[in-house]
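Suppose you are handed a protein chain with no further information: no name, no annotation, nothing but its sequence. What can you learn? This example shows the usual starting point.
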Amino acid sequence: MTQIDQSVPAGDVAAAKAAKDATPSSEITRLGDLFSLWSIVFVVLCTSGLALGLAYVFGIPIGGQRMLEGEYYWIFIGLFTAAAFIALPARPGQRNVPIYDVAAAVVVMGICYYFSTHAWDILQSGWTDIRMGIVIWLLMMEIARRSGGIPFLLVVLLLGLYPLVASYFPGILMGIPYDFNVMIESHVFRAEGMMGITTKIVAEIVLGFLVFAGVLIATGAGEFFIDLANAGFGKYRGGPAKVSIVASGFFGSLSGSIFSNIAGTGSITIPTMKKVGYPPHYAAAIEACASTGGVVMPPVMGAIAFVMAITIGVDYATVMLAAILPSLLFYFGLILQVDAYAARKGLHGMPDANLPSARKVLLKGWPFLLVLAFLVWGLLYMRWEYYAPWYACVLLVLLSFLRPETRMTPKRLFATLRQIGILVTQTAAIILPIAFVVSALTITGVTGSVTSGLVNLGGGNIYMIIFFGVLACFIMGMAGLALVAYIFLAVTLAPAIINVGGLNTVAVHFFIVYYAMLSVITPPVGAAAFLAATIAGAKPMQTSFTAMRLGVVIYFVPLFFLFQPALVLQGDLTPLIYVLPSIIIGIVLLSGGLEGYLLGVGLVRPWLRAPLAVAGFAFSFPGLTTTLVGGAVSALLMFLVWRDNKAGAGGGSGRIPTRQNP
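A reasonable first move is to predict its three-dimensional structure. Written in structure tokens, the prediction is:
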């Protein structure tokens, strides 16, 4: 990676080190050095799971015949749950692997192997072993605690136990009750639970993309994208902020993890932003927003995208295409705001001497771009679905031999396998326990009653139903449970919106995904903003509120594509001819109002900022009346801003300063 002057005060270094304590537990491992004992054990477990996954996905026979679905699922669960007990500490700061974690890993592998040998009996005759099923359930509860913390554990536990008390709830929350043994049977052995959609997602659909992300990260893709962003945007005003946005967008799409993105790119971009004049809370907010948007940025995106594809029964290419315009609009608004702030404060880009050469960066990193292009081609044109990332991995490994610094030496291969194992283990530790939530909602039949209840609660009014849905997304998402929120709302809220409003299915599900995801930058529990604030040495709540302002586009764009599905490339695309330009102009106006600097015009007086932001929002809303009214008001306000700046440039009494110190 090209070296850039990143000297920062000692306090910033200390804050960056403290970020580890603010990182969610699912993102922290205790594997130690690359070739430590437990690192080797972890890699052996994960490599075994990956080898079986590769054989199952491509139909390669093992022992003369192809594995049954249940056989593979149980072995996958056993290996990666054991890996989670080795890698994820039971409490913060725990560096060693205690004997009870070793015992838990051995027990879960033994039970899961035993279940895999009875996969045919489970499928044909409904074979179960309730006592061992209870042990698996309890071990999964502990994995839920380690991966998502106490809030995640409580959601998985309480919703998972709902079948025991379903008949005692009033109204729409009443469901069909089950005793404990039947509940465990459903949770652990049936397709409604661990043998169903959640395990399929992580063991089949997402697995190849996680392997691809791990290979990219291990071969230096994160550094390449930071260098590429520096070469392209570093010299412009507020350059480090724009570098953070572009680099985090790419890296977040590859890793699929908001927090890994912040820790990986933020440790470089945040100190650089602070050095050129961005306040700590502002720099942290930029990184939090950029990393959050990365998980819904094509081509890879996060696990929710794959869950959505399975839930609504479309191929991944459809989901990826639908995500393009909303993602670009979000990053467009984010870049406009940081540019406006830089213009208003007089912040400059980095000196050319400190910037990498674009030509050298491309010559060095073209294999990454080629592999990404190959992946997109495989997904969109060849329709390889979840085979595509496996093929892309093979291509990337072959290309790695072109340069000594990326060549897959034994040591680098081991490091790559460990990186892949960490990604898969972290994902499995979050997704597998959700099976109990899905099972509880399914067997009790509560999803249908909640859907009808939402319709009745909203009085059949689509806007009221959407309002209650947004509240539900925020409440569940604020606990750090975006995936759980989506799964729950996809089977309860989505049908209500679709049935009452007749809205597009893909648009409705994307609407839910976006609002569930926004919780990580939204107070009071903006985990992504808090992590970035720790790296920057900033106040967490101030950072979170700033992130809300910077990420304002992502708050209202879901409403736009909900009522205009052309924005997610669904249905008739003709409206894009007039809707997209109005949204782009509206975002420019909105950003100018929020940051006090209108692109191409100049500084905005304080009393004009709020009206300009409101007018920009109205102009961008995909409705004829709001667009016309917002356009007329915007034109008037733009004229006033232009007049003020012209008077200031001419030295009149209405002069506005064109440059301010940070």
